[in-house]
Amino acid sequence: MKHIPLPSSFYKQPTLELAKALLGCILVKETEEGMASGYIVETEAYLGPEDRAAHSYGNRRTKRTEVMFHEAGRIYTYVMHTHCLVNVVSGEKEKPEAILIRAVEPLEGEELMACRRPGHMKKNWTNGPGKLTKALGITMEDYGGRFNEPPLMITKGFSPENISSGKRIGIDNSGEARDYPWRFWISDNPYVSK
Fold first, then answer.
1. φ, ψ for residue 112 (rounded to 5)?
2. Rounded CA gap, 51 and 79, in Å?
């Protein structure tokens, strides 16, 4: 399968729109062991300075969040509870917003994913933000790159028929922000996280 990255212009839509537009796109990671990819089936939007659940709440600018202040389409990876998580930087320059990729449906490189997620059923390889990075081989080394060039890319996939939305997960200490319906997923997809 030949993957052509989506152009920079794709990332220039408002964050909540982009979070939905990413559903059905293909997340591709090239590594020395080979290539693995999956359809993005779940995302979560974080609207920067005004969003108490965002790392960049109040325009917090640290070594970790620096890439969020760059142009949309950049890769923001960070480690949480020993897991590397991957985000798509969104919003305009100096407006630090991002979209967490929460789950993907395996497409290519399934043998590789099986090796990277030993002892897990296929359904559990990529149905969470820390699981999918392990399965695809996404690491902190991807931080700051662009999704429109290798080794980590987002390419054209399909347009989902039905998209659901609801509250984001794991942000209970973020006041009213925890209730914003900024999590989006492809309705009834078996790879959406629990």
1. -65, -45
2. 20
DSSP letter, residue 1 = -
- CA end-to-end span of the chain, whole Å? 30
Q: How far is CA 52 from CA 13, 55, 134, 181, 191, in A?
A: 22, 8, 28, 14, 28
Element (H, E) at 114: helix 110-116
- Express the helix, strand and coil content of the chain in percent, nearest 5 each: 25, 30, 45
**CA–CA separation, 167 and 181 (whole Å):** 4
Count of Cβ atoms closer than 10 Å to residue 20 Cβ:
17
Q: Summarize the confidence of residues 147-159 as an average pLDDT.
A: 97
Percent of the chain, pLDDT > 70?
100
- The values of phi and psi at residue 170, to 5°, are 75, 25
- Quick: pLDDT tens for 99-144: 999 999 999 999 999 999 999 999 999 999 999 999 999 999 999 9
8 A C-beta contact, residue 183 and residue 102: yes
Rounded-to-integer distance, Cα 164 and Cα 2, Å: 30
Are 84 and 139 in contact by the 8 Å Cβ rule? The answer is: yes
Rounded to 5 degrees, φ, ψ at 111 are -65, -40
Determine if the pTM surpasses 0.85: yes
